Structures are given as C-alpha cells and as structure tokens.
Amino acid sequence: MAVHKFYKPREIEEKLTKKWEKEKIYSLKSDKNDPKYYVLEMFPYPSGEPHMGHARNYIIGDVIARVLSRKGYNILHPIGFDSFGLPAENAAIRDGMHPKESTIASIDKMRKALKRMGISYDFGDEVITSNPDYYKWTQWFFLLFYRMGLAEKKEAAVNWCNSCQTVLANEQVISGRCERCESPVEKRVLSQWFFKITDYAQRLLDDMKLLEKGWPERVLTIQRNWIGRSEGAVVDFKLDDSEDISIPVFTTRPDTLFGVTFFILAPEHPLIDKIVVDEEYKKEIGKIKNIISGQSDIERGSAEIEKIGCFTGRYVINPLNGQKVPIWIANYVLLEYGTGAIMAVPAHDQRDFEFASKYGIPIKEVISPDGKNHQKLSAAYDGEGIMINSGKFSGTSSEKGKKDVTSYLEENNMGKFYVNYKLRDWLISRQRYWGAPIPIIYCEKCGMVPVPEEDLPVLLPYDIDFRPKGLSPLFYCDEFVNTACPGCGGKAKRETDTMDTFVCSSWYFLRYCSPHNDKVAFDSKEVDYWMPVDQYIGGIEHAAMHLIYARFFIKVLYDKGLIKFKEPFIKYFPHGVVNLGGQKMSKSKGNIVNPSEIYNRYGADTLRLYILFVGPADSPVDWSDSGVEGASRFLNRVWRLVVKNIELAGSSKWANSKTKVLKDPGKDIKDEFKNGKLSSLERELCRKLHQTIKKVTEDILVRFNFNTAISAIMELVNLMYKYQEEVTASKKNVALVKEVTEKLLILLSPFTLFIAEELWLEAGNERSIHKVPWPDYDHEIAREELVTIVFQVNGKLRDRIDLPIGTPPEEIERYALSSRKVKNFTQGKEIVKKIVVPNKLINIVVKN
RNA sequence: GCCGGAGUGGCGGAAUUGGCAGACGCGCUGGACUCAAAAUCCAGUGAACCGCGAGGUUCGUGUCGGUUCGACCCCGACCUUCGGCACCA
User: Fold this and answer.
1) Which of A31, A108, A312, A515 has the most CB atoms lying inside 10 A of its own CB?
2) In angstroms, how far is B80 C1' from A584 CA?
C-alpha cells in the first residue's frame, strides 16, 4: 500500500476523530496507582462557537495533559460549562428562545468544536452548572455558608447596573463600569445577600506564600492590591456637647494626630442627620449633598474632581490634646472605606491640604523632615520625619511615633491598633432569572428560614416572563414564590433572587472529581485523591474575581473540615489573549477569526501548531494569516519527509523493511553511535534527536514555552532534510532514519495529534501514537563533543574555534594566543590577564 | 500617585546560571526545477563602512550612567508602553 503523497488534513482529521471517539481515546485517566495530575482549564460560558482565546486556553492544557499522561501520570483533564448567566437570558428577551434551550444548543456546538480540535477531555464527565443536579449542590453550599454565619442579608450601598438590571459585586465593577456590558454603575441602597469574604481577607493574603512558586507574581499583586491591606489605628473622637456619641476614624498616620485641624464625615454618613441641629447648616448640607449625589461614581472617582464640602456646626474632641475640631462633610470622603469618617491633617495629607486651603482651615505642621518648624507649606508633606508640636511626643521619629501614639490611645481607651482592608463582602444575589435560586424562604411567622437540605434543589421554573423589571423575574412567578414554611407549614414566600454565577464556578473543580455522585456535592475520597488542581490555566481577567472567590470557598471548606488543602490551584498559568490588528477580537469591531475557519481550511493540527508557535503562551499575540500559512507549510514539509522516509525502507511498513535491525532500533542506534559506527552527519542527526527530546520535554513541562519546543522540532526536521538531500539512498542508515522519524512523530504528537497519528499508523504501527510512552533522551548522545570556544580580547569577540569538550584551560590559552586574529589585537601590547571559562571562552585583557 | 510586567532586525520572537546577540518562523532577494506559473528544494538576509575579491572594521538589545575581564541579563536614574489599584484616609 502506498502512502498518500499529499497531506490532506481534513480527510485524516475527520477519519481519526471518529476512530478516537469509538476507541474512547480522549480520556487520559489511567490507574489510581500512578501518580495523579489534575490539569484544568477555566471552563467556558457556552456562547456557541468557541473563540480563539478558548482555543488557545484548551490547546495549552491539552499539550500538558497529553505529555504528562505519556510520562505515566494518571490525568484528570475535565471539561464543563459555566452555563448560567446573562447572555442566554438576554438572548431570550431578544428572540424568545428559552435560556435552557439555547444553552443546550450552545453546549452541543462547543463540545463538537472541542472534539474537532482534538482536546483530550473526559467528555462523559462534563459538569454543567445550569443543570439541577449541579445547582442543587451550589444551593447546598449556600446553606452551608448560611449555617456558618458566612451568608447574610444586609442593607448596603451596592452597585447597580441599569443595563443588566441587577446588582453587581465590587469585583465586577471595572473603573466604575459593569464588567459585562461596560455601562456605568450606580450606587443604590438595597437589602442584598453577601458572603463574608472579608472574614478571610488576612488568610487570603497570608496563604499567598503557598502560591508564590506556582503563580505569577503579577497575579498575586493584583490580588494583594484588591485586598488592599493597610495598617494603622482606629481613633475615637467624642462628639462635643454629647455624652455618648463618639465617631471612630481609621488612620494610617496616628503620628499626625496632633495636626488634626478638622474632621470629615462622608456625605452619606447616617450620623449627619442625627447630629446636625441648626437649620442653617441643614440647608447648606442639603445643597452640598445634592451636588455630590449628582456626581456619578466615575466622576467622583476620577482624580481631578474639585473638592467640595461644608461645615456642620458641630465639633469633635481630639482625644490626644482635648482640642475642639470642627466637623465638615466633603465629597472626597467615602462611606464604604474605613469608617466613613476621617481626621483631616492638612499639613500631611495632600487632599486635606487642598480642602483646607480652599476653605481657609488652619494648617498645622506636626511632622518635619529636619525637625524644624516651617512657616508656610506649599503642599502637604506626607513623608517620614520628626514629630513636632506634638506635646510629649515631640522629638520622636514619625515611625516610632505611630506605635507610641497607638499604644497611648490603647492604654487610655481612646483607640486601638487596626488593620483595614479595601476588600468588601461578596455580593452574591442577582435580580435575574438564569441562575441558581437562593434557597431561602420568608415565613410570615418564622421569618427567614433556610430551605431544608432534603428539599433541594429549589428548581427554576420553566415558564417565565424574562423581561427585567428591576426585580427578579422569579418575583412575578406565583407558583415559584408561594410556598409553605418548612418550619411551621404556614404561608411563606421564596427568595426570588438568584446567585451570582461566580458562586457556581467557585467549586466546579471539586465536582469534576465525582461528577455523577447524586448523594454529595463531592466525594471526599475522590477529592482527597485528585485535589488540589496541579495546573490551572485561564485568562488573567479573573485574577480579582473567580480566582479570589474560589480561594475563599476552599478556605471555608477547609475550616469546616470538608477538605484537607488550603489552596485550590497549586500552579496557575494565565495565557495571553489573541488579538487581531493590535486589537482585541470582538464581535462589535467585526475583527474575528474563529477557530472553525482555520480548522475547516487548514485542519486542526495547523491551528494547534500555529497558536502555540506564534509566541510565548503567556503573552498576547496578534493573529497573522501568513503565520498560519507557515504552520501549514511546516506540516506539509513533515508529511513529505516522513512519507519519503517510510518509502526508503522499501515498503510503507517499517516492520517489513530490509533493515538490519528490526526489534529495537533506538537501542541499536545508540550502540552504533557509541561505538563510532555512524558517519559524522549521522552522528549529528542522532545527537540532534536526543537534544530535541530533551528540549521539547523541558520546554513543555518546566518552562511552558511551547513556541521554542516547536522551533526545536523544526530544527530537527531541517537537519533530517539535510540528511535526506545529501546522502544517496543506498548509503542511508535506514535504522537511523526509522528511529529519528518515529521519535519525530512522537515529539510532534501532543501538538499535532492527527498528522502524527496518521503517519505513525502508515509506518506500520498498530497502537495509537497517543498511547506510546514519551521518549527519554541519552545524556551521552545529547552532549556535544565539540564546543565553540570564543576568543575575546578586552571582552570583544575576535575569533572562535571548535575544541573537544573538556579541553584544559592551558590548551585553550595556547590556541587563543596562536590565533592570527587575536594576535592582530594583542601585538605590541601588554597582556594583563587571561580569563578562561571552560567550554565557553577565553578573554585576554591587554593594556594599550 | 502607588504596585507589577514589558521594551531585541522589516515583522512575530530566541538567547534556560553574567560568557558567540538575532535560534525558529514570517517577509524579502537570488538560484534550482518548469514552456511558464504555482508548489517545492537550496542559498542569502541587523546597520554602516573598507576591499576587485577572499575577507575585514566599527556600531548595535528604549535612554543616560554604574558594577564587571566581560552586561539584552545585575545596580541607579529616566523615557515609552501594557496591566492592577487609586481623593483608600
């Protein structure tokens, strides 16, 4: 049987896809006695066809999973769908297709595409978050959190997206805009469900040391910034003319307490109404509040907005020196941060300085860089220095002063050391239909009652009017809302908000360990075996969303004793985005290349090869059509080379070849190499093969540099071509050709699945190439025997020579000094020094 | 403003521990094959200068300094750019 002369990717890929499906070759699970490895890519929202970013994500994971599997690991490499969420619901409003139907259709499309790209998933173990057998357990987790006191309903100023008609968590607000639709977010005071992630702020921070090795620094930095820890003190300021009211403030600079000349409440602060008595002031405050409430969060958050405010007519007492301090309100003080009130120190805080200058409030210097008083400050000094005008603390360094003042406050019950976090509690309720219902019932008699576990899941009703009205669509669904109280059996109503989809995605990786178990959310035995995830892969845009929530979830479960590990993802790799023309691919811009266009035209192998070769996996890449052509060209080149090599053996089957070696060509070639029986080009080829195995293995598993792994394979192919061109057929070492060709196919196989398999089978192998163990390399063969020694004079390259490895320094020196080119630069000059780095270079230092 | 990345040919990018800058690919140029073209194969390809030529010299990794026998790599200052946080007290 003759091998096909031409590479026909679509033909072989379609054929093999069917074959693999029949042989169930997609799963990489082996045996529980093997070491386990859990490779996980962030699961997608099923939007129909996967986009190029998805493809990049899954291809990277696939290569790692496949190589490790071939190295003897038992691999969990699952896929699922994060299928609750707004797009399906918005589509339903737009064109009437029920989210359930459109979701199923999208999942089908997506699954088909993933199979077409050859990703090695256990497709039978999919997790679909919008299925009741999944969201039942999402609700179960809610109840767990509720019982642990970590889920609470509270009134708070929350982010409202008017376009999505729902509230959003802080993490979903990106510079004042909705993460999903980019419309401006407003503040509304509403009663909402929160998970108390703030209880875990410090733990989320501390446990990052467990991630330092496996997570990129920039991701940890994003999380650190987001958690926003700052140390300082809470200081209580008593309200003047009042016995019992005192207002705490948070400050990072207790050492500046003597410099307080005014005091500010956030305009929304609830105390304002209580303490302002004078009608004059009430009117003025009303005016200011009006102006401020007219400013959007984006405006108010922007750097250069003018500071405005007014005096309230009331005073507080500075606890340190007993001075009366006027209370103002001002737009630059935020209710959400700290206590919603600040002590203003205009001499040492630029914002306070600007405000004080505008309204003629005194500025009192209490920290001096040189210990002296300065007449007029032109700006706030916020650096360290020496405390002045600070009573008994004067003369102390500001650094020590922070501690001393705090201790003094603590001793006198006026305040305490305090750590403040920017992190807010996680708002999880949403006023939308397509999510997991929150399992809570409101009884007229018993009040708030959790749904008993045995009644889960609280099913989403199917027939519903999706049009958003500011309340959940479920609110208008009587048969859903009206229920009986689980406690007293009396009339009761269900909670109608659904959960943020980030709740669903905070535990899906646990579900993958036992996806079909209907008794528990996850089987502990399986989770103990598989978790934590060894390698997590996905977009960095989730650094301060999904990746924080999932870490929080795991810590809660750890505290509850349900799991034995503190972090869900040991290693995390953020892949870069795929751009086109320097811009993010997006439907609205119309600059989209879909993976399907590429695999339909060039084949999945070309897509896979190109997307890995185009650049380092963690940096953004720009799509290039000529780059795709190049990848395709390379595969054609491989095809022709291998077909020729197979034919060389006199038959399309290696096994029938007339070579002198039949059983273990790898070993025989090694012997020939070591016994010096190969020609120099053959030695080079053999060495190149072993070097390539080494490089490809390390690049994939250690460095995550798929682009350089592929370029190494290209170099091997180039050398194989050289051998093919330069040596006449009768003189070729067929055993060597066979050995190098087969290893080449194995090295290619995790990248370009189909072509590797097709040629492998054509060469007469019975077993799939994807079940063949990953090759080892021989150190002795991989090692170069000659190295280029560089001759430098004063650090400049002047000559080079190839010498055997391990040539002693004196000999290198002799060669260097006898080099004509070196002599040109040393003649007539005094040689001061000679530095020899064995196997690398010699540097001769001369004086002019 | 604070924190964290990044900056290398015409382009995407290599250089793994301070030791040959530009691997590999794209593009381009030339050659082979062809009636011709495509495809393919081979060779060349950082810049400037010198030489008829073989060859040679100088410059060159954002900028300016420093450390070192030697710096894309380490240190200092700055510029540009991307990302995170941001009237955060």
Assistant:
1) A312
2) 21
